Amino acid sequence: MSLPRIAIDAMGGDVGVRVMIEGAALARRRHERFQFLLVGDEERINAALEMHPNLRAASEVVHAPDVISGEDKPSQALRRAKTTSMGMAVDAVKQGAAGAAVSAGNTGALMAIAKLSLRTLPGIDRPALAALLPTLGDNDLVMLDLGANTECDARNLVQFAIMGAAYSRIVTGLEAPRVRLLNIGTEEIKGTDTLRIAANELKAASAELAMSFENFIEADKINRGEVDVVVTDGFSGNIALKAVEGTARFVADLLRRSFASSLRSKIGFLISRPATELLKHHLDPNNHNGAVFLGLNGVVVKSHGSANALGVANAVAVAARLLEENLTQRIGTDLARVGADNLRPGGRAAAAKSEGSE
Fold first, then answer.
1. What is residue 210's predicted lDDT score, i.e. its pLDDT?
2. d(CA 321, CA 323)
3. pLDDT, tens digit, 9 for 90 and up, residues 196-232
4. pLDDT tens for each residue of 267-323
5. 98, 37 in Cβ contact below 8 A?
6. Closest Cα partner for 68 from 242, 289, 302?
7. Is 202 in contact with 213 (CB distance < 8 Å)?
8. 258 Cβ partners below 8 Å, 6+ apart?
9. Looking at residue 4, what DSSP letter applies?
10. What are the residues whose beta carbons fall under 8 Å from the beta carbon of 331, sequence distance 6 or more?
11. Beta strands in the chain (DSSP E)
12. Average pLDDT over residues 173-196
């Protein structure tokens, strides 16, 4: 049985059509059930498809006369959404022509278009950008928000935690993912009022949700394997993500330089090659590509702009898995369990405190 079609913004990313088509073709070779809607310059897409007959047989090409650039502001992108490859790919999800959309284009533009076109789920104020990060544990972790919302209140953070836990249960198979709020310390007194309120809300609600919540985590523990979902605002999350990615590149470059420094080092490299190849695999962002806008009435996946064909294929696989596992419905079910009214800052926690004082 085939999955709903996945709309590909074929013009997005640093390279554009060639890599997006190669990535879709790789995804199709891995999973014969995948069907595609390829949106962009029809002539260029058809030319790229000549090298991938298997993908052509599983795809429909939709011409888009315009492209959103990396320099376009979200407001500019919204005005041109109806004629751009990105806007038309997301609209295909809205119209039911596709089940999910994948784009490697401008993140801010994709966020604005997706939110306006698909709207948020009942009980969700803002969508959040979530991605998988490697850890020393048995599973990757889910981290959100990674840049969609620079300022968040406690209600937003609680909603992010619920969405992140639902996503984590799909990708890890865990029944109750360990959820933590990113903070400058693990003590209850640390951090802002917003973080402390959100922590109290999550403690009060976690008994009704399939998650384990125990306050805070510091940035240096993110990849240790001690947590499954890390929740923060988009400003802090984006900084933390880029710091992790930069550190990974630093370690890789340092090892490369060290192994090339002498004949003895080169011999050492040959001996340790299996270990360095494993390290390379874990540090390669293409192996964890595919960030998701959680909280929308539809599945939208953001591929890294510099992703290669493997990275694009992995982003497509993320979209397909979320369709198969009904992520949107799962989030809606979890929100219904706690009730939208109970997610206001101080709502459930304040009520519990009031009852206890009577």
1. 80
2. 5
3. 999 998 988 877 788 889 889 999 898 888 999 999 9
4. 665 665 555 555 555 556 667 788 899 999 999 999 988 889 999 999 999 999 889
5. yes
6. 302
7. yes
8. 265
9. P
10. 121, 124, 162, 163, 166, 294, 295
11. 6-9, 36-40, 59-63, 100-103, 128-133, 141-144, 178-182, 212-217, 229-231, 291-294, 299-302
12. 90
Q: Average the pLDDT over 131-151 and give the result.
A: 87
- Pairing relation of β-strands 229-231 and 291-294? unpaired
Residue 14 has pLDDT above 60, yes or no: yes
What is d(CA 11, CA 22) in angstroms, rounded to the nearest whole number? 13
Which pair of tokens denotes residue 330? Answer: 């799962």
Residue 354 has pLDDT above 60, yes or no: no
Task: Give every strand in the sheet of 141-144, ordered side by side.
Answer: 59-63, 36-40, 6-9, 100-103, 299-302, 291-294, 128-133, 141-144, 229-231, 178-182, 212-217
Location of structure tokens 């890390």: 230
DSSP 8-state assignment for residue 208: G
Categorise residue 39: left if φ over 0, alpha if ψ from -120 to 50, beta otherwise: beta
d(CA 220, CA 217): 8
Which tokens sit at 356? 């206890």
* 212 SS3 class: strand
Q: Assess whether pLDDT exceeds 80 at residue 348.
A: no
Which candidate, 193, 194, 159, 197, places its Cα nearest to that of 179?
159
| Residue 122: pLDDT over 50 | yes
Closest by alpha carbon to 153, among 211, 231, 210, 219?
Answer: 231
The residue assigned the tokens 């998988």 is 132
Nearest CA to 178 out of 200, 202, 196 is that of 202
Q: What is the CA radius of gyration of the chain?
A: 21
Q: Which of 171, 169, 163, 101 has its CA nearest to residue 132?
A: 171
Taking the complete model, does pTM exceed 0.85, yes or no? no
